[in-house]
Structure formats: structure tokens, C-alpha cells
Design goal:
single chain, about 300 residues, mainly alpha, 11 helices, globular
């Protein structure tokens, strides 16, 4: 196959989750329902936090940003998939593919860093309660949020620029329902050594360091909670980080599951189906986890509806 100039590439072909025609209406209805639940649930969390002055604290400040990131994260992939199913086509232009890839990496990374910052917030609240308001002041919270955006933007921009330097062959089929970075890179006819190195380094650093920070924070949190004498105090301390721990387990559990399945299974279609868990299911479940396990969020939602 002869390499083509990037400007001559008309489109990529997204093979999606299934090519069977009779399954397309079912997939459309399923993913439309999941997207609407994700969008509505996370939007309600944002509105509840912004309208209730009692929730204007660092923990809920980061939670509202996590909900915003989840909305954007899902919106980078699902609407295009729904449009392709509705229009009965499976194509995405080169420009759309690069744009989708950039924002997918951006908001996936933002989710990752926000969960880490929220773990640090819980660590300070439980391990250093007397200094909490001094440490987690509005300026510092703003700087943490800015750092999350800058780091993830630099990562997505770097990977995007490295993809732009590649030339592609005529076979442009992607066994996925969106432009996944690794699969797009492997379609290139030109040398992808630099892309692979940056991809593995970025994934290792931006995945391992935040996860290590979360684990370290919770080791300190558990150690501090065990020192509390009263059972009521222990229960209250655990309840303040229970929702966050559930979301962390869901996010990293599904992400690692997809990574391990892709390494063990050659079938990329199976990997695409598994990736639905962290790209669609996890952002959809997050609002339910926080609303069902958090009394403050429940009260704020009641006020919002009343």
C-alpha cells in the first residue's frame, strides 16, 4: 500500500461495536439512553453544587469539575457514534478524528487528575482537619485545578501533534467506535517509533503517578481513621471518602480491565466493547454514586427540584 499525503486522506472507517444491521437500532437506543442519563445526571450534580451555598467547599468544587469533565468525556465519542448509526455510515474525516482524539485524551486525563486531587483533599480533611481551611484555600484549589488542565492539555496536544506528522496508508479501518490513539497510530505507514515512546511514557507517568498519589493518600487516611477511638467518628470519616473511593475503583478498575484485556486478547472488537465500561458506563454511574451515598448532595438535589 502506498502512503498518502495527510491532506489527501478523506476519512477513517469506524467499524464500531458490531456490523450486524439488526443490532444497530438496539445500539442506538442503548447508547442514546446512556448518554442522556450521563448528561442529565452530571448536569444535576453541577447545578446542585452551584446553587447550594453549603456545598461551596473544596470537595464539592472538585466534584462539580469532575461532573463537567465526565459530560465532555462522553460527548467526545457517543454523539458521533449515534450520528453514524442514524445516518447508516461508519466514517469520520481526518480532521474530526484528530479533534476527537485530542479531546478524548484531554478529558480522560482530566478525570484522572481530578480524582487524584480529590483524594488529596480527603487526605487533608481527615489527617489534618485543623489546618484544612488554611491548606485547601480557594487560591490553592484554583491552582490545583489549573495544574490538572495544563498537564492534560499538554499531554493531548503532544500526542496530537505527533499524529499530525504521520502519513497513512489506504487501509484506514479502526476496530472501535471512536478514534482511539493507539489504533490510529498503528494505521500509519510512516515510522511510529517516537509516537509509541511518547504514548507509553505519557501513559506510564500520567497513569502511575496519580494512582500512586491516590493509594498513598488512602493509606494515610486509613491509618488516621484507625486511630479514632469512637465508632461514630470512624463511620463519619469513612463516609466522607466512600463515594470518592467507589468512583476511583470504578474508573481505574474498568480502565485497567480494558488494558489487560487488550494485552491478552488479539480481537480489537472485544477490546472496543470492553472500553464502553470506562468511556460510557463509568461517567454515567458517577452521579448515582455521589447522590446515593452523600446526604449533602441529596439535600441539594431536593432543594433544586423544590
Amino acid at each position: 500500500m502506498e502512503p498518502e499525503n495527510q491532506t489527501d486522506i478523506p476519512q477513517f472507517i469506524l467499524l464500531g461495536l458490531s456490523e450486524e444491521a439488526e443490532l444497530q437500532p438496539l445500539l442506538f437506543g442503548l447508547f442514546l439512553s446512556m448518554y442522556l442519563v450521563t448528561f442529565t445526571g452530571n448536569l444535576l450534580i453541577i447545578l446542585a453544587i452551584t446553587t447550594d451555598s453549603h456545598l461551596h467547599t473544596p470537595m464539592y468544587f472538585f466534584l462539580s469539575n469532575l461532573s463537567f469533565a465526565d459530560i465532555c468525556f462522553t460527548s467526545t465519542t457517543v454523539p458521533k457514534m449515534l450520528l453514524n448509526i442514524h445516518m447508516q455510515k461508519n466514517v469520520i474525516t481526518y480532521e474530526e478524528c484528530i479533534t476527537q482524539m485530542h479531546f478524548f485524551i484531554l478529558f480522560a486525563g482530566l478525570d484522572n487528575f481530578l480524582l487524584t486531587v480529590m483524594a488529596y483533599d480527603r487526605f487533608v480533611a481527615i489527617c489534618h482537619p485543623l489546618q484544612y481551611t488554611v491548606i485547601m484555600n480557594p487560591r490553592f484549589c484554583g491552582l490545583l485545578l489549573l495544574a490538572c488542565w495544563v498537564l492534560t492539555f499538554m499531554d493531548s496536544l503532544l500526542n496530537g501533534l505527533l499524529v499530525l506528522r504521520l502519513s497513512f496508508c489506504t487501509e484506514l479501518e479502526i476496530s472501535h467506535f471512536f478514534c482511539e490513539l493507539n489504533q490510529v497510530v498503528h494505521l500509519a505507514c510512516s515510522d511510529t517509533f517516537l509516537n509509541d515512546i511518547v504514548l507509553y511514557l505519557a501513559t506510564g507517568l500520567l497513569g502511575t503517578i496519580p494512582l500512586t498519589g491516590i493509594l498513598f493518600s488512602y493509606m494515610k487516611i486509613v491509618s488516621s481513621i484507625l486511630k479514632i477511638s469512637s465508632a461514630g467518628g470512624k463511620s463519619k470519616a469513612f463516609s466522607t471518602c466512600g463515594s470518592h473511593l467507589s468512583v476511583v475503583s470504578l474508573f481505574y478498575g474498568t480502565g485497567l480491565g480494558v488494558y489487560l484485556s487488550s494485552a491478552a486478547i488479539e480481537n480489537s472488537r472485544v477490546t472496543a466493547i470492553a472500553s464502553v465500561m470506562y468511556t460510557v458506563a463509568t461517567p454515567m454511574l458517577n452521579p448515582f454514586i455521589y447522590s446515593l451515598r452523600n446526604k449533602d448532595i441529596k439535600q441539594a438535589l431536593r432543594k433544586l427540584f423544590s
